[in-house]
Amino acid sequence: MKRVTLAMLCKTSPVWFRFLRRKTYPWVTLATAACKIAYSSRIERDKEKAHLMLALARINVVSVLELMNELLW
Length: 73
Fold this sequence. Notes:
The protein is mainly α and about 70 residues long. It is flat, with a radius of gyration of 18 Å. The protein has one domain. The protein has helices spanning about 5-40, 40-60, 60-70. It has 3 helices and no strands. Helix 1 crosses helix 2.
């Protein structure tokens, strides 16, 4: 049985981090923008609203609806 060393994990961790970042990118941006809207001043709030709208536009609505349909039926 092959032992997993720290060097092996360090080589593969950037790959997994990139994969995770690509899969969760619009959702993380959506969550952080929503939190920043609640705690920011007037000018920053307008900027965060724009970030929120861009994050909403990047989410693939069809795949979300397919997932919800599978969960419900």
